[in-house]
Automatic annotation (TrEMBL):
Boundaries of every SCP domain copy: 48-155
Top-level taxonomy: Bacteria, Candidatus Collieribacteriota
Protein name according to UniProt: SCP domain-containing protein
InterPro entries: CAP_dom (IPR014044), CAP_sf (IPR035940)
Pfam families per the UniProt record, alphabetical: CAP
Length: 296
């Protein structure tokens, strides 16, 4: 009887590799008359691995519950479905890591099945160039271990990884103002400029609401392209027949006060703040996009 060892890197043709490996047998002599051998544990195996790495001047691997979970799911499908590469069940190494919530920069794995407990698994891995390079890779930091014991043999799956470093982006100031705050800022500035504050009318709010939804869907201002078509809708025509209506648009300002200042200093928009002819209005705003409707 023998033990079979497998190691896989990204891009490996798993099926052909596994076929080649399983056609080869590693025969290891078992001592006759050996006493009952205790089950292997993940802690003891990790200690052996780290001892071997430290002798080579490498960093000790740290046990990870997420990698343990991934290793267990991989060993399960390998033993039950002979699914070495995950193509049968869909539980690939990457999928197992994703399911466990672990994001890896580099991943390696070591597998043995039917390995005699009385033999030295670390020596076995170090005796092969490929598995030795995996076991002693300097970039690995975390490890997951899955073990299935039988009377005198053991199946082992080791998952080694280095976590992906997440670079935190500078926090973007949260925009909290909306239509109410912009409405208040507009009327405050109108009073400061010596004209009456606007009075709200529901029908004007209908137009402002429709226009804001259009702009939010578009993701930008439309240069008032959608304004006249809204006024010409059969169900809304009466509003433009009743009032003289103007539309003012704004986008991208962190505060309503800054939005009002921008209007004040933009040709054609100052009338929203200084135009004494306007009596009624309504303002809708979201995600720094603002629509102000003014009428008389």
């Amino acid at each position: 009887m023998g033990a079979i060892g497998y190691f896989f890197l990204r891009g490996t043709d798993f099926k052909s590799l596994f076929s080649d490996l399983t056609s080869q047998r590693f025969y290891i002599q078992r001592e006759r008359g050996a006493d009952f051998i205790a089950d292997w544990t993940a802690e003891e195996l990790l200690l052996k691995i780290n001892t071997a790495r430290e002798k080579k001047g490498l960093t000790k691997l740290k046990g990870s519950t997420k990698l343990d979970q991934s290793a267990k799911s991989r060993l399960s499908v390998i033993l039950s479905e002979n699914d070495v590469d995950g193509s049968v069940t869909g539980i690939t190494r990457e999928k197992a890591l994703l399911n466990a919530g672990y994001t890896a920069n580099l991943v390696g794995e070591l597998i043995v099945t039917g390995f005699f407990k009385s033999n030295d698994i670390v020596a076995y891995w170090n005796n092969d160039k490929t598995t030795s390079e995996t076991l002693n890779h300097p970039s690995f930091r975390d490890v997951g271990v899955a073990i299935k014991n039988s009377v005198d043999r053991v199946d082992v799956y080791i998952l080694l990884a280095s976590p992906r470093t997440v670079v935190k982006q500078p926090a973007t100031p949260k925009i909290t103002w909306g239509g109410l705050e912009l409405w208040e800022a507009i009327n405050k500035r109108r009073v400061e400029m010596g004209v009456n504050p606007l009075k709200q009318r529901d029908e004007l709010c209908t137009i402002a609401s429709i226009r804001l939804n259009q702009l939010l869907t578009l993701g930008r201002l439309d240069g008032h392209e959608g304004f006249v078509p809204v006024l010409n809708r059969e169900d809304l025509k009466w509003i433009s027949e009743k009032y003289n209506i103007s539309e003012y648009l704004i986008q991208g300002y962190p505060t309503p006060t800054e939005a009002v200042v921008a209007w004040e200093n933009t040709l054609g928009h100052r009338s929203l703040l200084a135009g004494g002819e306007y009596v009624w209005g309504c303002v809708y705003a979201q995600n720094t996009i603002g629509v102000a409707i003014a009428a008389y």
